[in-house]
Amino acid sequence: MESIWAALSSASPYLLSFILLLIFLEQISYLKKKSSIPGPTLVFPFVGNAISLVLNPTKFWETQTTLAKSSPLGISANYIIGRFIIFVQSTDFSHKIFANVRPDAFHLVGHPFGKKLFGEHNLIYMMGQDHKDLRRRIAPNFTPKALATYISLQQSIILTHLQTWVSLSNRTEPISLRLLCRDMNLETSQKVFVGPYLDRELQTRFNLDYSFFNTGLMALPVDLPGFEFRNARLAVSRLVETLAFCADQSKAKIKAGGEATCLIDFWMQETMTEITAAEKAGEPAPPHTASKVFGGHLFDFLFASQDASTSSLLWGVTLLDSHPEVLARVREEVARIWSPESDRLITAEELREMKYTEAVAREVIRFRAPATMVPHIAGEEFRLSEEYVIPKGAIVFPSVFESSFQGFTEPHLFDPDRFMEGRQEDRVYKKNFLAFGAGAHQCVGQRYAVNHLVLFIALFTSLIDFKRHRTDGCDEIAYIPTICPKDDCKVFLYRRCTRFPSLW
After folding, report:
1. How many CB atoms lie within 10 A of CB 60?
2. What does the pLDDT read at residue 324?
3. What is this structure's pTM?
């Protein structure tokens, strides 16, 4: 033992020198990549600013925004666990990144350590013809007929949850809507995406695994037993397996001639035709038709819709409460078209008539873009401008949030009229409305997402009187990882209608 200690003691100066050399080289590499763009002059060895990002993400990204605004290029730099990062405030440069998703430029990752978390073969990582083919296959999921089917499912679940929320509320203590909205949206996603194939036992397991996943999104990316990131990664594998089982059930139903009642059924209709044709011809099944592949893509849909939708619902309530004139106009429009006492759901045609309510929904999404940034990795060096080349391996964050406050008329005002026919700012300033992305990877389910928010606003404002529990800083932005009000949107709720619709 003494000889081991002696050996360690004699080696310690060399070990210390080696560590200092690594730290020195790391700082030199960071400064070289940073070049002249704003960012920290020195970074903490090995972990960079990862701890400050995890402990206070709001402050971290506000600092990056301030630094980017101080630069003529509209970009800033930082360093997180061995990875050089670039924050992009400029709308023009954000579009340049979205337009150059290809093997020799940028790779969309969805999360800084997404490939570890989601696996290698998800929709967001696909490019080129393979990606185009898959998006073509996805298109039947969002036809008017399919969306009308989803509208009924969405409303039934929203109505059930709204009744529960009112029963939980009282006149002395506010309730927090964040977790309630999250649970409602998770059930909505489950019913819309995989309908009857998720029984109560599977649903309970599914909800638990999704909770593990959600927690791991904001954790340090330590892939070791006992750490939240590892729990999240394993949970994703189980979620994909569950969704693959649902895909198997849908295949059997559609093959037997059953009607489509959820998203996976609509997806399977053309898929089963192709699989059957291949079987008759003695050929292998077409690409992207294995149930586990469907499970992975369904998880992509779930991730894209779940937390972003929760964010938008919370901001919808917050902004309607602080803009009573907007709330009054929404209620007046909905009352002209639909009544709770009719004991029926809002139809797809009636939903299209709610022009102002949809304008409110779009303004909520613009004003508080839920997924504020869309991480990409530079697969190769990329010349962003004459002044700066993005180094290979950099994680690049185009800011959807910052683009929303560029170009529009008085962009810092919450003004739904900007999306009405008279002004059409969604067309005039289309390049600044990046909440659903741009380019080849633009969100395929954006119509579904807008419908969900419009339905929620229409039902919530018609059925419920609500009042925010306002405290200092309650409307400040918190990252979870999408954005929500800092207080989780605490409200008092009261039933507004004479009775809830009787649908059962």
Report:
1. 20
2. 97
3. 0.90
